[in-house]
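Hey, I was hoping to borrow your eyes for a little while. I'm sending you its amino acid sequence along with the C-alpha cells. Take your time with it, there's no hurry, and the full record follows here.
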Amino acid sequence: MIEFLNQRAKLSDCTLADLADAAKKRLRPIFLTTFTTAAGLFPTAYGFGGDNPIIIPMVLAIAWGLIFSTFITLLLIPALFFAQLGFRKGGRLS
C-alpha cells in the first residue's frame, strides 16, 4: 500500500482524491489476501479436524492479528500518509 501511494505521489501533486483512488485500487488485493489466509487458518484455530492445544492459540493470534492489521492497512495507513504529505508540503494540501 505504501509503495503504491508513494508512486502515486511522485506522478502528480497528490490530493485527497488521488489518495482515495490509490487506496481504492489496492482494496481488493489486500482484502482477498486477508480473507483467503484467514479462511485457511480458522478451521485449525477452532479445532475442526483435530485439537492441538499448542497450535490453536498461535493460529488464533495469527488469524485475528491479520484481520486487525488489514483494517489498519486500509484505514490508518492512507490517513497517516496524507498527514505526512501535509507536513512535507507545509500544510498546503487540497
In short: The chain has a mean pLDDT of 84.
